[in-house]
Amino acid sequence: MSYYEPLVYIVPPEEEGFILKTVLQKRLMVSRKLLSRIKLTEQGITVNGVRQYINIKVKAGDRVEIRMEEETSEDILPQDLPLHILHEDEHLLILAKEAGVIVHPTHGHYVNTIANAVVYHWQQAGITCRFRPVHRLDQETSGVLAIAKTPYVHQQISEQMIQHQVKKEYLAFVWGRFTDTKGTINEPIDRDPEQPHVRIVTPEGYSAVTHYEVVEQYSQAALVRIWLETGRTHQIRVHMRHLGHPLIGDKMYTLPEFESSPDAAEAGERLTRQALHAFKLGFVHPGTREWTEFNAPLPADLAALQAWLQ
């Protein structure tokens, strides 16, 4: 049985006598689910190199280690596809995703995804990992994408997301002129009962909060910086439409007054997707325990759109 490199914690003097389970959950922040999983393996939990039960008391200076079994994504076909890697270490792979690429294989899309490319990349590098994206980006949205290499890292960042501690910032090119250059949209979102694949603002929906600030105002459009408190499906696209400023190129959530305009027709010739880019992702790195931010530059199609709008 092969394991990833262990996570290590040295018990300080003030924690002598703590129960090992407390150390694992409160200091290493191991979830109950993951703890149940690793304690069943031979080298999952050790103290000073010896396998231990989680109800023992620890002593000052004890070296607590947890190990997770190596995993692979055997159901994902490796493919030699281009990857724009922003950062990679033993815990995480951070990519700049291109627009038009699906993150994970789905029914009818088994190849040409980010997952296929990542599995191939790891295979060539001799890295044994299961493909675990820690968040989602729509197929036509470009930008920063984080992939966890172990269950622990995935759990750590997922927990930060639940606690609204992850910073996700987007750049969007939207139609119209703004009266207020910054604001917050706090409107619940749910499926459209007549079109289940479409989301709408509805009082019966799930809480959704979007903050925005105008970066550049053009004659009939604007570049807007957006950051989220929640992560509902299509949240930015739905909220900006609700505000009266749909994303340029967004055919699903456009408005009639923009859909039929000459500018929209010309923009449609220049851009084949909604003008949304996830340019920044920040969180506490599970390995270093330090705040870390990753940025993806504006892709060529949106840079060209910006130049045209200017």
TrEMBL record:
<dbReference type="InterPro" id="IPR006145">
    <property type="entry name" value="PsdUridine_synth_RsuA/RluA"/>
</dbReference>
<keyword id="KW-0694">RNA-binding</keyword>
<dbReference type="InterPro" id="IPR050188">
    <property type="entry name" value="RluA_PseudoU_synthase"/>
</dbReference>
<dbReference type="GO" id="GO:0160140">
    <property type="term" value="F:23S rRNA pseudouridine(1911/1915/1917) synthase activity"/>
</dbReference>
<feature type="domain" description="Pseudouridine synthase RsuA/RluA-like">
    <location>
        <begin position="91"/>
        <end position="242"/>
    </location>
</feature>
<comment type="similarity">
    <text>Belongs to the pseudouridine synthase RluA family.</text>
</comment>
<dbReference type="InterPro" id="IPR006225">
    <property type="entry name" value="PsdUridine_synth_RluC/D"/>
</dbReference>
<dbReference type="Pfam" id="PF00849">
    <property type="entry name" value="PseudoU_synth_2"/>
</dbReference>
<protein>
    <recommendedName>
        <fullName>Pseudouridine synthase</fullName>
        <ecNumber>5.4.99.-</ecNumber>
    </recommendedName>
</protein>
<dbReference type="InterPro" id="IPR020103">
    <property type="entry name" value="PsdUridine_synth_cat_dom_sf"/>
</dbReference>
<keyword id="KW-0413">Isomerase</keyword>
<comment type="function">
    <text>Responsible for synthesis of pseudouridine from uracil.</text>
</comment>
